[in-house]
């Protein structure tokens, strides 16, 4: 393996460790449990867990659950499942809501030090007093409240004396700072809402800026990695840690990873679910980890993808083709090969008199440890309708009148006669086979260029196939005019009934990965009924869509 150069965050960690700044590092992945994880989160997971895999230390899973209204335990469970599936183990499972009492004490400390005050202004007044990036803001009469009064009012806020929005607690920093976030940011707001973990214990909730850095500090996170939009928050982050004199966690930012032809925002993904554009968060078309899992992606391929896109400082849009490439790379190595005819036309072998025989077929030429299977052959078979042409152009190597092809793992056949119905549609192809051409024991000396997949008409199962395409027709639906939903690809799912498969697929498990020869990579759908197996197409064999 060639040595990969370190990304800029790995360099920071390596320097901190070699300078003796830390004995070991701690990172965290801090999802808000308000939706399922998507491919952008996978980037952040691979980055945070990747750092401690490489340099030692640990990564916490911390649920950033300070917003009671949008959060739910269903999301907590899905997030845990997805991280485990991606192959990572967290050190501690933690919840920002577990720190509510500590955060409250921190707020009191700030008030006692004259660094926070209770403000009765409306949010409009606060926004207005804050000024603009080019004009300084100014403090109002509440900023001068004495410590005692602030302590009493803040206690009353907690005790539920006030309605939502009647008061807030603000840090007293600098109303003239060029950084708008430093202009006396709100630390606490009143919200009489039920929380998924703390129930009705609280009616005041800390704002992101007062929860995140303090949670990092409580957990002794050394490198707190977030996305670029938090750059202006770093000043607040550092100010609070300094004034509270607590463990000095440090924030570092990297650019969000966005994937083309989809949306990566939990809010928009929730809309797709609620408005029934998809069947749920784990619909195989969704860019969620759960969606990719159901679609047949492997954790290895997603980790490989995150690794290849790397980390940077500039926002970028990654082509969906790269994710598919990573899937093909891995699936090619592990997928069991099977033969499935999607659109069958019958082949009768007129000179085959053995009745039937068993042929040996390798399960995966890339991995001989997967062994062989037996497939039955008879005088009646199905091949793909598109693999026959009555009047073929030059260099057509599939089946045509008078032309020979090899049937995979079987024999060379020649088409002698085309049987049609009254309307002229091809009903059956009468062929002869060459007995000496058996795969693995071919003494016929005949060379053919085309090899076709097939199934035995007397021994097969019917399956259903879901063929998926991009969910959106444009590269960046969130950036287009109008609603992003109007760019949904109407043909993102094609259901194919009546595909015919070799019987080995009866034993398929959801954890198996398959390559249907010449068709693509497939996985058994997790909700597949027992009497009709449903397979999802993960990716085609080749990059097939025009950019
Ligand atoms: P969304 O906009 O989808 O709700 P979020 O950032 O609000 O995303 P969080 O649950 O707060 O979602 O995210 C957890 C972590 O994942 C954060 O550290 C966040 O920065 C990171 N993250 C989220 N989206 C991306 C992305 N597209 N690329 C890289 N990291 C991301
Ligand atoms: Mg967030
Ligand atoms: Mg969000």
From TrEMBL:
SUPFAM superfamilies given in the database record: Nucleotidylyl transferase (SSF52374), Ribosomal protein L25-like (SSF50715)
Start and end residues of each Glutamyl/glutaminyl-tRNA synthetase class Ib anti-codon binding domain: 335-433
Domain of life: Bacteria
EC numbers on record: 6.1.1.18
Domain Glutamyl/glutaminyl-tRNA synthetase class Ib catalytic: start-end pairs: 25-332
Keywords assigned by UniProt, alphabetized: Aminoacyl-tRNA synthetase, ATP-binding, Cytoplasm, Ligase, Nucleotide-binding, Protein biosynthesis
Entries under Gene3D superfamilies matching the protein: HUPs (3.40.50.620), Ribosomal Protein L25, Chain P (2.40.240.10)
GO molecular function list: ligase activity
InterPro entries reported in the protein's UniProt record: Gln-tRNA-synth (IPR004514), Gln/Glu-tRNA_Ligase (IPR050132), Glu/Gln-tRNA-synth (IPR000924), Glu/Gln-tRNA-synth_Ib_cat-dom (IPR020058), Glu/Gln-tRNA-synth_Ib_codon-bd (IPR020059), Rbsml_bL25/Gln-tRNA_synth_N (IPR020056), Ribosomal_bL25/Gln-tRNA_synth (IPR011035), Rossmann-like_a/b/a_fold (IPR014729)
Ranges of residues in domain tRNA synthetases class I (E and Q) anti-codon binding: 451-525
Alphabetized PANTHER family for the sequence: GLUTAMATE--TRNA LIGASE, GLUTAMINE-TRNA LIGASE
Family note: Belongs to the class-I aminoacyl-tRNA synthetase family.
Record protein name field: Glutamine--tRNA ligase
Organism: Niabella yanshanensis
Upper classification of the organism: Bacteria, Pseudomonadati, Bacteroidota, Chitinophagia, Chitinophagales
